[in-house]
Design brief:
Length: 424
């Protein structure tokens, strides 16, 4: 019997929405939430529940997701945080269930369309950064994160550009037709990253991902490791020189932009110098500036971890404990420790941070299995997993849905290719 066109469209609708969802990531966060809500509605009406459950049940990411559910549930029971505040924090630890819902969608053409959608979003973001640097972009709600530095959203835009650039480079490598426009698009996004984003984490992530991509495809590993050692030496010299330079006039990105009218490259350079000098000064005296508060947050959170390293303090307990500990200091009003590893350890104990690390290990394991199946999606899984591990050391990548949902939307694209039981 011929397929019913309406039934086919309803079945494929979740994939259609997932294929355009990545472009929403470079616009205000409400666009991402609305897009994901539309995906969930399409997921519900698309039916085929038996097939969806089979795909989720057989996917390797089900195990670490359930493990974190068990760890966070035990923490809730152990510390008696069964209240509204505790429930909100508990739900944050279940963010990987969103990934499982996306992985329930059958793999298909929507994946490549989603990659192209992500690249289109990166090109749009780079263009908006260029326009902002030329002062041609109005400071409206739609473009505010491009015109001024807005913390987490601006950081996310930088991370997306870094990931997109290296993903583009990977696609250029695996395509048989190395057309000039693919390379031009890569360079365009890289320029947008370093001229406009002003994010130290994103700039450093780009180089980390390029090194990983080079190592994954290097045939002469000995020469590659030698080049890596040379780069490490160059980096050490650069850090030493940055520590000896005079302190910049300010370390606040917004002040550099508004008061001193610095370009994006100058802001990124000054913030890098500030970072080196902040680490140096904090190591000597324990003093920090407003821009260097993360060092103080890390130090105070680590002391909280040491108070209860095995069982943690309980779900949603970091914030009240930290506000009490940091009372009167510059970082008192911070709402996250800007480090997922410390947060999970502080609230869930040693089991929490081990569970987080196992989640990342399982992501890499999916990449290894895809590589054995000779899938081109293995490298993107590595790229995204490394990005989450790296950025999670400096930002609330999983604690903040602004970061976490965006990363999982991208991660679902290559991970959907995994097929249980398929042999290489």
């Amino acid at each position: 019997m011929p397929l019913n066109p309406s039934s086919t469209f309803r079945r494929d609708l979740p994939g259609h929405i997932l294929s355009i969802l990545p472009v929403s990531l470079v616009f205000p966060v409400a666009w991402m939430y609305v897009g994901f809500l539309l995906f969930l509605l399409a997921f519900v009406v698309s039916g085929e529940w038996t097939q969806k459950w089979q795909r989720v049940r057989q996917h390797p990411m089900l195990l670490p997701t359930l493990l974190m559910l068990g760890i966070s549930s035990m923490a809730m029971l152990l510390h008696g945080t069964l209240n509204t505040e505790g429930l909100n924090g508990f739900l944050h630890y279940q963010i990987y269930f969103f990934l499982l819902v996306m992985l329930a969608v059958s793999p298909g053409d929507w994946q490549q369309r989603a990659v192209h959608s992500f690249f289109l979003g990166a090109l749009i973001a780079a263009s908006l950064f260029f326009l902002a640097s030329l002062k041609l972009l109005p400071e409206t709600t739609l473009f505010r994160s491009y015109v001024i530095y807005q913390g987490n959203k601006s950081i996310l835009l930088g991370l997306l550009l870094a990931i997109a650039a290296v993903w583009m480079l990977h696609e250029w490598k695996v395509q048989h037709n190395h057309t000039w426009w693919r390379l031009a698009a890569f360079l365009y996004v890289v320029l947008g990253l370093f001229i406009g984003s002003k994010s130290r984490t994103a700039g450093l992530l780009f180089f980390v991902l390029v090194l990983m991509l080079g190592f994954a495809g290097a045939r002469m590993r000995r020469w590659y490791l030698l080049a890596l050692a040379c780069l490490a030496g160059l980096g050490a010299v650069t850090v030493y020189q940055a520590a000896q330079q005079a302190a910049p006039v300010t370390c606040l990105a917004k002040e550099m932009h508004d008061r001193y009218q610095m370009s994006g490259v100058e802001i990124l350079e000054n913030r890098a110098i500030c970072t080196v000098q902040q680490v140096r000064d904090f190591g000597k005296s324990g003093n920090v500036s407003e821009d260097g508060m993360r060092l103080q947050i890390y130090h105070n959170t680590w002391e909280l971890v040491q108070q209860s390293p095995w069982t943690g303090h309980g779900v949603s307990q970091w914030l009240p404990l930290y506000q009490e500990k940091a009372k009167g200091s510059m970082s008192e009003k911070m709402t996250t420790p800007h480090n997922d590893y410390l947060l999970y350890w502080c609230e869930l104990g040693i089991a929490g941070v081990v569970g987080l690390l196992l989640t990342f290990v399982w992501q890499f394991r999916v990449g290894v299995q895809l590589a054995k199946q000779r899938s081109a999606d293995a490298i993107p899984v590595y790229l995204l997993s490394l990005s989450m591990m790296f950025a999670g050391a400096f930002n609330a990548i999983l604690r903040d849905a602004l970061f976490g949902l965006a990363m999982l939307i991208l991660l679902a694209i290559p991970m959907a290719s995994f097929r249980a039981g398929q042999r290489p």
